[in-house]
C-alpha cells in the first residue's frame, strides 16, 4: 500500500537543519502504525511528505505503484481527495455547517451524487456513534464528539490511507481512549492503512506496531 525509501528532509535559511534522513517504511492494507518522537523531531513533517503537501530532499514515497515525485500539484490534490483521509488534533470542523454537512465535504469534492452521499454520511455517523447528531452544529458538541465527526469525515470517502496527527491531543483521558479505539476499529474494518502520529505511549499501544522518529530514521519501539 505505502512504500517509503531513504526519505530525507532538510530546512535551509540562516540556520540549515536536517530534520531526518534515511526514513524507510512499508504499510500494507489493514495495518495501523504509530509514529512517536520528541517535539520537533519531524513527525508532522513526515505526514506532510506522505500527503504530498511537502517535498523530500531525498528518497521516494509510493502509494501502490504511484510515485508521488512523478505527480504534479493537481494530480496530488486529486490523489489526496480520493485515496487519503486526515484527522488532526485541532479537529478543523467548519462551525457554520451541520455535522452531516461537515462529514459530506469529501464526497462533495469527489462529485458523489447527493442521494448516495446522504446514505454514506448517515451510515458513517451511525458507525461513530453520532446518528442522533446529524443536524447538530459543532458548537453543540463536546471535544470527543468533534473528533468523532473528524474521523467520520476522514473515512466517509473510503480512503486507502488514513493519516492522524495527534488526534487525541485536545481530549481528556476518557474521550481520548474512546477516540483511539474508534479510529483503530474504523481503519481495520475498512481495510485502510493508517499512520498515527502521537507523543503518547498509551495511544501508540493501540497500534499494530510503534516506531520512533529520529534524525537518523525510524526505529522500532519494543516494548511500547
The gyration radius over C-alpha positions equals 17 Å
Report the β-strand fraction as a percent range. 25-35%
Instruction: Give the count of structural domains.
Output: 1
| Name of the CATH class | Alpha Beta
Query: Count of helices?
Result: 7
CATH-level-2 architecture: 3-Layer(aba) Sandwich
Query: Total strand count, please?
Result: 10
What distance lies between the first and last C-alpha atoms, to the nearest angstrom?
A: 24 Å
CATH superfamily: P-loop containing nucleotide triphosphate hydrolases
**Largest beta sheet: strand ordering:** 6-7-8-3-9-10
Helix and strand composition category: alpha/beta
The main pleated sheet reads as: 6 strands, mixed
CATH topology: Rossmann fold
Mean pLDDT: 92
Shape: globular
Q: Which ranges are low-confidence, i.e. pLDDT below 50, for 5 or more consecutive residues?
A: none
SSE topology string? EEEHEEHEHHHEHEHEE
Percent of residues in helices: 25-40%
Amino acid at each position: 500500500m505505502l512504500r517509503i525509501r531513504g526519505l530525507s528532509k532538510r530546512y535551509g535559511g540562516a540556520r540549515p537543519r536536517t530534520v531526518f534522513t534515511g526514513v524507510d517504511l512499508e504499510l500494507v492494507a489493514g495495518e495501523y502504525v504509530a509514529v512517536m518522537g520528541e517535539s520537533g523531531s519531524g513527525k508532522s513533517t513526515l505526514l506532510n511528505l506522505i500527503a504530498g503537501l511537502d517535498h523530500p530532499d531525498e528518497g521516494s514515497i509510493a502509494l501502490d505503484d504511484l510515485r508521488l515525485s512523478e505527480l504534479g500539484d493537481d494530480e496530488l490534490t486529486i490523489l489526496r481527495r480520493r485515496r487519503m483521509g486526515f484527522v488532526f488534533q485541532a479537529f478543523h470542523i467548519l462551525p457554520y455547517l451541520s455535522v452531516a454537512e461537515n462529514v459530506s465535504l469529501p464526497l462533495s469534492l469527489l462529485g458523489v451524487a447527493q442521494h448516495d452521499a446522504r446514505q454514506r454520511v448517515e451510515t458513517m455517523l451511525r458507525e461513530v456513534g453520532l446518528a442522533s447528531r446529524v443536524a447538530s452544529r459543532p458548537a453543540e458538541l463536546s471535544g470527543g464528539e468533534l473528533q468523532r465527526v473528524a474521523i467520520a469525515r476522514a473515512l466517509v470517502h473510503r480512503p486507502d490511507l488514513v493519516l492522524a496527527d495527534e488526534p487525541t491531543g485536545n481530549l481528556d483521558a476518557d474521550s481520548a481512549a474512546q477516540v483511539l479505539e474508534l479510529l483503530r476499529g474504523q481503519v481495520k474494518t475498512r481495510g485502510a492503512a493508517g499512520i498515527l502520529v502521537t507523543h503518547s505511549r498509551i495511544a501508540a499501544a493501540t497500534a499494530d506496531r510503534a516506531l520512533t522518529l529520529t534524525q537518523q530514521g525510524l526505529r522500532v519501539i519494543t516494548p511500547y
